[in-house]
Design a protein that fits this description.
Layout lengths: L2 H8 L14 E4 L2 E9 L4 E8 L8 E3 L3 E7 L1 E4 L5 E3 L3 E4 L4 E2 L1 E2 L8 E8 L2 E4 L5 E5 L1 H14 L11
Antiparallel strand pairs: 1-2, 2-3, 3-11, 4-9, 4-12, 5-8, 5-11, 6-7, 6-10, 12-13
Length: 159
């Protein structure tokens, strides 16, 4: 075996999960999510979310960066004019505050992939933190929803 072949054989292998292996489960009314990857030590969580038309997510602040890619549908933050449509990429710096909204006029499910570092701090009407949602919290919610639906324990990458 040559040096390159030996190096390839000893390198870490990529990990794959098919869509069917990580089911979409309810998070709130009108929203299903799939937890793809987690690293609680690094505070990283990667999710895919399917929003029905008219869904609004509570105003929140991020403690770390967020990376988002829209696969279908459209959505926006109520505080900003930009509209994310299929093919849109969005970067959010740490500290960003916003309210995610999917227009009720959408004719299809809005499907978005998010990679999130740190936590979401859910805010009340006065800007006070009501809840903290981080990588471990989301993993617990996902596992709990899978169990409640009678599904096998999900093989989220990183667990």
């Amino acid at each position: 075996m040559n040096a390159l072949a030996s190096e390839v054989m000893s390198a870490p292998q990529s990990l794959h999960r098919g869509e069917i292996e990580l089911p979409f489960v309810p998070y709130q009314e009108g929203l299903l999510f799939q937890h793809l990857q987690v690293n609680t030590d690094a505070g990283l969580w990667v999710i895919r979310v399917r929003f029905e038309p008219g869904v609004t997510i509570q105003k929140h602040r991020h403690t770390g960066e967020v990376f988002a890619f829209t696969l279908s549908g459209s959505w926006r933050y109520l505080e900003y004019p930009d509209i994310n449509v299929a093919g849109s990429y969005l970067f959010e710096p740490a500290g960003a505050i916003h309210t995610l909204h999917v227009p009720a006029t959408n004719r299809e499910i809005t499907d978005v992939w998010f990679a999130i570092r740190g936590a979401n701090l859910n805010l009340d009407a006065n800007g006070n933190v009501e809840a903290v949602i981080d990588a471990a919290t989301v993993l617990g919610i996902y596992r709990g929803q899978c169990k409640a639906l009678g599904l096998a324990p999900p093989r989220v990458i990183g667990c």
